[in-house]
Amino acid sequence: MDKESQIIKQQVVYEGKWIKVLKKDFSIGDKVIKEYECVERNKSDKVFKEFDGVSMAPILYNTPTGIKQIIIIAQFRPPAGKFMLEFPAGLVESDNLFENAERELKEETGYYMDKQSQIEELSFPNIPISVDDPGLCSGSGKFIVVKVDYKDIRNQKITQELDEAENIRVHLVNLDSQLLSSLIQLAENNGYWISTKLYTFAAGFCFSQIASKF
Amino acid sequence: MDKESQIIKQQVVYEGKWIKVLKKDFSIGDKVIKEYECVERNKSDKVFKEFDGVSMAPILYNTPTGIKQIIIIAQFRPPAGKFMLEFPAGLVESDNLFENAERELKEETGYYMDKQSQIEELSFPNIPISVDDPGLCSGSGKFIVVKVDYKDIRNQKITQELDEAENIRVHLVNLDSQLLSSLIQLAENNGYWISTKLYTFAAGFCFSQIASKF
Asked: In this structure, are B15 and B107 located in the same domain?
């Protein structure tokens, strides 16, 4: 039978500027597990924020070669001390998911999203809340796939608008059956690590094309 | 021109049983950014561990309906205090990636991986290190897609072998063009959140089937 679980007790053991660490006791049925270490992002404004961030797969179409490309970034990330290949992403600042995505895409990559950026087949009335590292942190977001028109005149000469703490390089990777190996090659050539969500998107994309073979 | 970045200074500000919090100063070209808060997993054994964990998309084939399925779990995660839909995953305990995956799959879901579990088109000599939440934590892993044979006699009656701190339900979802909406429905019906890497795998899988349409 399915067991229920809930948080029974929690205490903050570290509080910083951006994050805090908590120890939580939780139940599994009648059993209690003590002092599980959890990380939480400090939220500045709980009014509109059911979740912390937005991340996106921006698909560049109308490219000169006719092959669609995915716009990704290599960002220096202090936790691992490395540049990471990642999707553009950021913390939400208002309750409009697409406005937040639009802003982050422009700031981090210089590209402008289409006004009608949603891909119909992947648009759901309720995009669920997702969590990057659920065993460690409650930090949460929503993920979307959006369109970027290469022929949009504003996308001919791109300019980033980075925060002072951001060091970000923009990369374009062909969206074809070689996507996963292209990412691995790009990472190897530059000494990058890869964010798991970019890797699994590419793995899902490539697997889809061979899934019928076994 | 590309700017270089590196960690200049770091100090531990919290040390727990499983994680620590550090404040790091890092450079962007000539500029220094101070006291970026980072989380690190405590590593018990650095000898074989370039990375912390393994996660996998286990693909069940030879099913009665003929439709392949993906084996996923809903695990109670104390950080968010919710059950999360996730890929089976775990910390590595030896240097053989597939042995670790095999053990975690058996423990968390009861299923046995194929002896020849690798899918040739997705097998790379160097699977890169990936990071779940690179802006927050250096915790790292490798992700693989593996095969599980429904007709394997051991998979006819599955039995989990859970740790005392694990509360895990096993779900099977059809691997078809509805994969993403099936996950969303499953999450909604049960009050689950979703791990971003499962969500992006499904988004990549479904996007692959419609990418040529626009």
From this structure: no
Same domain, A12 and A59: no
Contact of A116 with B119, CB cutoff 8 Å: no
* Contact criterion met (CB < 8 Å) for A204 and B205: yes
Residues A22 and A196: their CA atoms lie apart, in Å, by 25
Q: What percentage of chain A carries pLDDT values higher than 70?
A: 97
Q: For testing the chain A interface, which of B3, B131, B145 should be mutated: the one with the most A CBs within 10 Å?
A: B131
Residues in chain B: 214
Does residue A185 lie in a domain region? yes
8 A C-beta contact, residue B19 and residue B42 = yes
Strands A130-131 and A89-91: unpaired
The per-residue pLDDT for range B74-122, each reduced to its tens digit, is 999 999 999 999 999 999 988 889 999 999 999 999 999 998 888 888 8
Same domain, A85 and A188: yes
Asked whether A18 and B37 are in contact (CB, 8 A), the reply is yes
One domain, residues B175 and B153? yes
Claim to verify: residue B36 and residue B124 sit in the same structural domain: no
The two counts, helices (H) then strands (E), for chain A are: 3, 11
Contact A78 B126 (CB under 8 A): no
Do residues A122 and A37 both lie within one domain? Answer: no
| Residues in contact with A153: Cβ distance below 8 Å, sequence separation at least 6, in sequence order | none
B21–A19 C-beta distance less than 8 A: yes
Q: Who among A13, A119, A169 is closest to B2 (CB)?
A: A169
The verdict on a CB contact (< 8 Å) between B122 and A203 is: yes
When scoring B197, B206, B212 by the number of chain A Cβ atoms within 10 A, the one with the most, hence best to mutate, is: B197
CA of B126: which chain A residue's CA is closest? A184
CATH number at residue B109: 3.90.79.10
The model's pLDDT over B31-47, given as tens digits with 9 standing for 90+, comes to 999 999 999 998 755 55
Is A48 part of any domain? no
Same domain, A149 and A204: yes
Return the pLDDT at B131.
Answer: 97
Total count of domains within chain A:
2
Residue B37 domain boundaries: 5-41
ipTM entry: 0.96
Cβ–Cβ gap A200/B204 under 8 Å = yes
Of A16, A81, A138, the CB nearest to B79: A138
